[in-house]
Fold ABC transporter permease.
Amino acid sequence: MKKIKIGRIYLILVFILMYAPILYLIVFAFNQGDQMSRFTGFSLRHFQDMFADHHLVSILINTFILAFLSSILATLIGTFGALGIYQIRKPSLKNLVLSLNNILMVSPDVIIGASFLILFTLGGITLGFGSVLLAHIAFSIPIVVLLVLPKLNEMDTALIRAAQDLGANSYQVLSRVVLPYSWPGIIAGFFMAITYSLDDFAVTFFVTGNGFSTLSVEIYARARHGIDLSINALSAVMFLFSLVLVVIYYFITNPKKHKGGLKIRRRSTIKQHGGIQ
């Protein structure tokens, strides 16, 4: 019992350390005053200031477009990359490819950002939306591969052989057996790619240019000139958006639970009303 209580207390403390700074930012987004030292009253004026700032709203929209576009492309490339790794039969070659895939996962963001900057400069690629998009796709692909590949490894190869014995061609095996089975990993990879794209600062800081910016870079630039509670309002909006993503991901990856719960509620309702009339 003591171990369980200590474990719960430790878990509560961890959650407090994780979420207390975020909640502090969100609470003062509703502050009537302009400082974070004292809460003077409830107000929505900082949200109004945020949405009235057309430059900031434009950056917010660009950030979301970048995150969704890079996540979709990274998910497509990463899924087929995981399929390619899955089909490698030689263990040493598979481990080598996985190690190369994991380089971007373990490398410091500063090194990755500087490397992309040098690559784009040597390649004559203009820094802007295109360079940031390519960089976000590149560092999101390994994440997708690492989340899709375990689902492929869990899949029973007898399912593929059975589909082939029934006359399915390669496309049908892929679309009706392999991809549906690995769908949870694909969805997880997509949402993780969105999270990484929205969160990234170091890599984006190196490869952005031509007037294009993302929220992380813009917040950093504004924070250097002093605290503005419109940034708190922006943080509250981003937190709400992240929470919506988590809820969507939960419902997509756990459809059977909700269907089962709905059936149970329907049955209990029918019993309470004496059956179907």
User: Anything to note?
Assistant: Residues 261-277 have pLDDT under 50 and may be disordered.
